Amino acid sequence: MHEPGKKKVDGWFALGLLLTALFLVFVLYPLLLILYKSVLDPASGGTTTANFVKFFSRKYYWITLWNSVKVTTCSTFIAVLLGLPMAYVLRNVKIRGLSVINILIVISYLSPPFIGAYAWVQMLGRNGLITNIFNKLFGIQFAGIYGFAGIVLVFSLQSFPLVYMYVSGALKNLDNSLNEAARSLGCSTFQSVWRVVTPLILPTLLASALLVFMRVFSDFGTPMLIGEGYRTFPVLIYTQFMGEVSTDSHFAAALCVIVIGITLALFFLQGLLARRWSYSMSALRPMEAKKYSGLSNFLAHLFVLSVVALAIIPQCTVIFSSFLETKGGHVYTGNFSLENYANTLLAKDNNAIVNTYLFGVAAIALVVVMGVLISYLSTRKKSPLTATLDTMTMMPYIIPGSVLGISFLYAFNAPPLILANTPLIMIIALSLRRMPYTIRSSTAIISQISPSIEEAAISFGASERTTFLKITLPMMLPGVLAGAIMSWITIISELSSSIILYTSRTRTLTVAIYAEVIRSNFGNAAAYSTVLTVTSVLSLLLFYKLSGKREISI
């Protein structure tokens, strides 16, 4: 019984403290430890800036940062050039097979970029199928897609769906009367898109471009596979921390600090620009797809189908090559066989597939439970504590996965909390990486639920906890579960943090695919990739079933 004169402890405040403590331990502490390692002199135990001086004073190192900036800028620019018109065309023109097209676009995005790189090597590598055909037809010696051009090609085709999904969602809220007014004043389609539509959706466009930029900037799998002599910054971090020849953990920590600084600056710059060019719109007359005929219809279909075909070719190539017989694992004989699946699915001590599903389910359970609670606290229980918690949850979203993995090894490889080389560290890393997406989607759902509904339940005698469990949560659940499926797909496709944290007992599908490609066991890599692609497709179909949607827009 509650004693008079004593203040009752607020359960939601206690929950906020607990969640904040968890994020302090698993997010802020590892990142602060990286900062400490970057300025630590291992010889004297004092502080030093030698690692930063080493990076900026030697061209061999800082040129990798410049290479990454060039690759990322070009890839982001091309992704916007593809994603913006794709979203506009599909919102305005009735395209046949739209449901299938949307599925193919999402699948091309959810597949890890390095799988696309591996597939393009199969087609346009030095001994690729298309390369051999071109060389024989035109009598040339095409050197393949390796280097800068190949990296940009892979990243652009793999990233434009993100721009498409964001812009498509923004176009839903655009009042089409503005577009029609521009047309009536003599603007062409291009002019109305450039002068009217683009400025109105600019904050969304900047947000999607930032996501593309950060994703491309932090990816090391693609440059490792097809970069050859073109070194990028993530590859430098990986080799300095995990290299086979020589490693320097303190120098790797300094590189991580530089990455964190760049991504934080970009994140705040995007927020500043978004607030500067933010517009409030009410779609009194939303865009509706119309049926065109003649040349306009033909060009619209040609553009959409060509872009989708280029984006989905890597997945088709991987699935096809998974059924081809190989000699020595890397030379295709031209015969069809199931040996690649026998070598992977039926191999002894092969735990990659089981680990992927187990870790994914455990991570998504954490993501859903903590994401819903954090979104509820930040929306309904606003305070300095919940604001701090909300800010910390965004950190794993901002920093690259490889940096998070390295910080975890620094923080949890020694007492008092030893998690390195265990499944738990993999699960925590996977859940933290994807939790911000669920928190943002759950926050949007809660914002649509009127507080008056909860107030009515409380006025009838229900406690806040009962109101949350029996009223708010059931109303949120359909949207949360649909979002959880999308988070699940991205979790099982995660490579950047997994490649740092895995052991032989905790490797996942993406790690297995990467390892097989590095060993030139292309048949096994194709079989693993097909399993991952089929899992993603089935999960996506389940998302459509639960959400009742036929497209994904953000």
Describe this entry's structure for a reader.
The chain is mostly helical. The protein has two domains: 11-37 and 338-554, MetI-like (MetI-like fold); 58-321, MetI-like (MetI-like fold, Orthogonal Bundle), CATH 1.10.3720. The protein is 73% helix and 2% strand. It contains 25 helices and two strands. The protein has helices at residues 11-38, 50-57, 59-92, 98-110, 113-124, 129-138, 148-172, 176-184, 189-200, 202-218, 221-226, 233-242, 249-276, 294-321, 339-345, 352-380, 384-393, 395-398, 401-411, 423-447, 451-459, 464-492, 498-501, 509-518, 522-547; strands at 324-327, 331-336. A two-stranded antiparallel sheet has the order 1-2. The protein is globular, with a radius of gyration of 25 Å.
Distinctive features:
554 residues, mainly alpha, MetI-like fold, 2 domains, two-stranded antiparallel ribbon, 25 helices, 2 strands, 2% strand, globular
